[in-house]
Design brief:
The complex is a heterotrimer of chains A (about 290), B (about 270) and C (about 325). Chain A has about 290 residues and is α/β, with parallel strands linked by helices. Chain A has eleven helices and ten strands. Chain A has a domain of about 35 residues. In chain A, strands 6-7-8-3-9-10 form a six-stranded mixed β-sheet, with helices on both faces. In chain A, strands 2-1-4-5 form a four-stranded antiparallel β-sheet, with helices on one face. In chain A, helix 3 packs across helix 4, helix 3 runs parallel beside helix 5 and helix 4 packs across helix 5. Chain A is globular, with a radius of gyration of 20 Å. Chain B has one domain: P-loop containing nucleotide triphosphate hydrolases (Rossmann fold), CATH 3.40.50. The two termini of chain B are about 30 Å apart. Chain C has about 325 residues and is mainly alpha-helical. Chain C contains twelve helices and two strands. Chain C has a two-stranded antiparallel sheet with strand order 1-2. The chains are: A alpha/beta (about 290), B alpha/beta (about 270), C mainly alpha (about 325). Chains A and B meet through helix 6, helix 10 and helix 11 of A and helix 6, helix 10 and helix 11 of B.
Chain lengths: ~290, ~270, ~325
Amino acid sequence: MAIKFERVGYEYQDIDGKGYLALADITLNINKTGEFITLIGETGSGKSTLAQHMNALLTPTEGRVHIFGVKISREGKKDKNLKLNPIRQKVGLVFQFPEYQLFEETVGNDIAFGPKNFGVSEKEAEERAKKMINIVGLDESYLSRSPFNLSGGEKKRVSIAGILAMEPDILVLDEPTSGLDPLGRNALLKVFYEIHQKLDKTVVIITHDMNTVYEYAKRVLVMREGNLVYDGAPTQLFSRKNVKNWNLDVPDILKVRRAIEEKLGITIEGETRNKADLMAKIGEALR
Amino acid sequence: MSVIEIENVSFTYHGDKRALDNVSLSIEKGEWVSILGHNGSGKSTLSKLIVGLLKPQSGTIRVDGITLSASTVRDIRKRVGIVFQNPDNQFVGVTVRDDIAFGLENLQIERPEMIERIEHYAKKVDMYPYLNKEPHALSGGQKQRVAIAGILAMKTDVIIFDEATAMLDPEGRERVMEFMRTLNREGTTIITITHEMKEAVMSDRIVVLKDGKVLKADKSENILKDKETLERSNLELLLPLEIMHYMNENGIDNPSLKEFLWQLSLNG
Amino acid sequence: MKNIVIGRYVPGNSFLYSMDPRTKLIALIVLMVAAFLIQSFAHMLVALLLVTSLLIFGKISVKRVYLGLRPLMFLLFFTFIFQILFNQEGDEIFVLPLHYTALSIFAAVAVAVFWFATKKRVRFKLLYFLITVVAIFAVFHFIDFGFLFARGTFRVFEEGLSTAFFIMVRLIIIIMLSTILTITTKPTDLNLGLERVLKPLGIVRINTEEIAMIISIALRYIPTLLDEANKIMLAQASRGVDFQEGKLKDKVVQIISLLVPMFIISFQRSDDLANAMEARSFVPGQPRTRLHVLTWKRLDTVAMVVSFLALTFVIVSRVVL
């Protein structure tokens, strides 16, 4: 168990001084390896707040978070010996907008910045930059370019490479595909899935896109008004009852499948987690 | 009558490769045209060219018959309004009310009329209760609705939505798309620039751009079903239409299902 | 970070809040000039009384004004001390012999160190500081044994003391007047008032409308910028930047990792904003109608008359007396 939330609550003060409960009574375990999790919920449901607890950017006001054995709690915060920085290398968090992160003169330096902060040598950091720029789908010529002249999609990839280069054990990504065109979106999701498959790393993706959830997730966490209301497999998540109660967007695959099943008066067997599968099954049913 | 005519327009950002290469298209009054393309296809440059924020190296732009030039640019800006992508970077006013007023102050609308228009259009975009709110207290979708109200209050003939939903969450996106539908029903000429297929579905015509050139321009129905063209511009078919394509490829004949799939794609 | 209130505006309800911002601005200047022209101590005290009654009738919480004064306490204190120490006019009213001996110097240093080490834990810091100062003087006065290095005398003169009080009260009046302005006027209204009041500067080619618009846009973006600064710090912290620790060299990198993104975001923002403004028919320098108008009321005329009367009175008394 790499990350363990024990009855975590987080309250902060509004501009008007009012207390606002962003997280309430969250209990949750995330393994060090093997997980592919999507974290979903409406804006304001607490997803980003939850993610920021995973790498100790935030300290809970109630309860405890254990990250790779380090206990994070309100009381523990006063402990001068508590070093939170190493945790940030183990749990890599990529924010939604690359503009908040890119600052070095070249792409190469920017990607190397993270690893160097954790003691990686200059040479090794450069090597990692070369490796990661390729992994995110850009070629090495980008390394000498200024990060500020890139398109939105390219900046996004560079910021992701910057966190990958830290070689974290767990990768947490906040809306990594927002702003990308469909091709870019699919390519990037495949990258994350491959990292998960080949390196057996745990990946947590915050997203609004139910299609991503349905196609890739092994486990879905649903946040609603600060509460964790669902923690389980994606297929069960989209039952008609849940969709109605939680006002969920239905993934296209399911929407179309259910419409076709109704129209043709048939039932399609199996899960059809991707388009190819769905189309094959429809083809079968029609013949 | 064509309300916007773009003739052989080319544009290059200083020294870079061509953002737009010999692009021509025309937009009729009351039409809804979607300009689709991959990131970097040049689509975002188009809106700035139409209102004279950028000057093309070659070609002509005409709005309502008026040729765009340094002396006519002001008249053109009264006819075409743009809602830009970043909700924070187009919100000028200290409050919602002030922001909607901004364009009206520029147009030198008299105060009593200004007040009336602000209230009317704030109500229209469901932001009336927020008139005194400051932008940092609003969501992205709310800020975009304020931007829309500001443009509507200026009573332009054409509204361009330049990737206006790209930075919004699904709820914000849905509400802005709802307004696009409403405005279109009321006869406003609408241009949406996007890479989201679900926005393009609602339009009358689609123009697909790739690497600065017009790849194809046709009635939306034809483009939406055109897998090859879409994929060449890094776009996807809507799922029901992808299934339709699959059926065609595999010789599965079922006209009523195909019609059903088409309707499904239109209704989202 | 979210608790920062822009300016010191506190919502309220009194005649001060109803006044046109132009009136408040001009009255502030006029009354400040008057305060500088007052010569007699008695007049100064009356002025203090009048300003205090403004506060009370204007329903401004005295506590807030005190909080506004607090950061300037040390300034007031040093102004006071400066006069006492260096103004040697008039009769001697207090003489204190001082003895700088090995022991007294040692004791004085010990007192100073003690103050430095314990000052953080004390609530009334200024008072504690004053007590420490008195203690040091007492040490130099009473400890007159041990090896004597030198003798000294601390003298207070009549003029020194009265001038010290005079200047301190004047400072307090001026600070209170400007605090009244900022507490009762929203930054946007202040901006509007300034724009109108400084309009005559148009003669020297200074366009106050443009400047007012720049200020207004800046005000609009302050909360947004604070938010973004926070997000940038979180993003960089996720890459191993430890904003709490670090030597000077590290601090420089930390600051750069915060400032560069802020600048880049701001440059992009100004580009986008300029486009959006122009697209909405904004032409710098062209006349614009305005949504917000300032209305001059009878209250404003009264306030102006009173302020100018006060100034006249002060000028006349200076000339006559």
